[in-house]
Design brief:
By secondary structure, this protein is α/β, with parallel strands linked by helices. It contains eleven helices and 13 strands. The protein has helices at 12-23, 40-51, 66-76, 92-95, 97-117, 152-171, 193-202, 222-233, 270-281, 305-311, 319-334; strands spanning 3-7, 27-31, 56-59, 80-83, 122-128, 175-180, 183-184, 207-209, 216-217, 220-221, 257-262, 268-269, 287-289. The strands form four sheets. A seven-stranded parallel sheet has the order 3-2-1-4-5-6-11, with helices on both faces. A two-stranded parallel sheet has the order 7-10. A two-stranded parallel sheet has the order 8-13. Helix 9 (270-281) crosses helix 11.
């Protein structure tokens, strides 16, 4: 049994991860400030599912509160930290940039410092497929350069990877960054396309379909994401003895540092996802076809060879199964 600190534990991925860790007998300290970026009632409902379980403790705290965070680490001494707390959303970053600086940069360096001073054995943190920015070569690989982000959200996630590497290099803190690809499933975020589309279709409202439906996404079911996170958290990174600054590989290091993509490795066109959703709902959507939005990328596609090689896991939940599971949860939770 290990002691995990999961930040963002009342969030979409953090909720599912905390539940799976508890299932296998780990102790979970779940940090979350229950902010109002989206409906706090949904966050509270997730949290209620966790707080009734043995081995779980909720701490209401902001990552920016350095003194409180340091006190929590000193008290609990977590073995593994999984940092999922962040200000999410590409489009929101266009109008609320300071929220991303506070949570994703200030908050993350506070996590790094707390891990450094409390002998944390492994820091696992959420990055994002957004870091690939204007890259055109597909599938996206952790061995590709990611120096051209197209949103502040993506830039903060790239910054997290750089900050983590610095701490791995200077202080031998093992860190692993996980680039998630379009996560969806039951208990999902209300600002994500599947949730927005489901709500609008059931209420008889039109949906906004960006890039005229030609967007492609490597939709990844939340259970697959969580399985990947747990396997990676059990696999503490070691320095790569073959790494050389003469031909620097961005995906590994001479320090105990690693990056992984966690994606379905099977891009789906947005229109197909909508058609699948329409079948599950038994209703046809009225569609507003719109151009691509600032900060968005037209396609994502994860190269997961390193994930398969190192932890023996390949996400494999189909879009048909995942969307059906989401719709079943949505109808039950909202009594539709």
């Amino acid at each position: 049994m290990s002691k995990y600190l999961v930040t963002g534990a009342a969030g979409f991925i953090g909720f599912h991860l905390s539940g799976k860790l508890l299932d296998r007998g780990d102790e979970v300290i779940g940090l979350d400030n229950l902010n109002d970026y989206y409906d706090p009632k949904l966050k509270q409902a997730r949290l209620d599912q966790l707080t009734c379980r043995d081995g779980f403790r909720h701490v209401n705290m902001n990552l920016e509160d350095r003194d409180d965070l340091n006190a929590l680490f000193a008290e609990t001494k977590p073995d593994v930290v999984v940092n999922l707390a962040a200000q999410a959303g590409v489009r929101y970053s266009l109008t609320n940039p300071h929220a991303y600086v506070n949570s994703n940069l200030v908050g993350f360096v506070n996590i790094l410092e707390a891990c450094r001073h409390n002998e944390t054995k492994h820091l696992v943190y959420a990055s994002s497929s957004s870091v690939y920015g204007t890259n055109k070569k597909m599938p996206f690989s952790i061995h590709h350069s990611v120096d051209h982000p197209v949103s502040l959200y993506a830039a903060t996630k790239k910054a997290n990877e750089l900050m983590a590497h610095t701490y791995s290099h200077l202080y031998d803190l093992p860190t692993t960054g996980l680039r998630f690809f379009t996560v969806y499933g039951p208990w999902g975020r209300p600002d994500m396309a599947l949730f927005l589309f489901t709500k609008a279709i059931l209420e008889g409202r039109p949906i906004d379909v960006f890039n005229f439906g030609k967007m492609k996404r490597d939709f990844t079911y939340v259970d697959d994401i969580v399985e990947g996170v747990i396997r990676v958290s059990d696999n503490v990174p070691q320095p790569n003895p073959d790494w050389s600054g003469d031909n620097a590989d961005p995906g590994s290091s001479a320090a105990p540092y690693k990056l992984y993509n966690i994606g379905n490795n099977d891009p789906v066109e947005l229109m197909y996802m909508i058609e699948t959703l329409e079948k599950c709902l038994g209703k046809t959507a009225e569609k507003n076809m719109m151009p691509i939005q600032p900060g968005d990328v037209p396609a994502t596609y994860a190269d997961i060879d390193d994930l398969i090689r190192d932890v023996g896991f390949r996400p494999d939940t189909s879009i048909e199964t995942g969307v059906a599971n989401f719709v079943e949860w949505y109808r039950d939770f909202y009594q539709v």
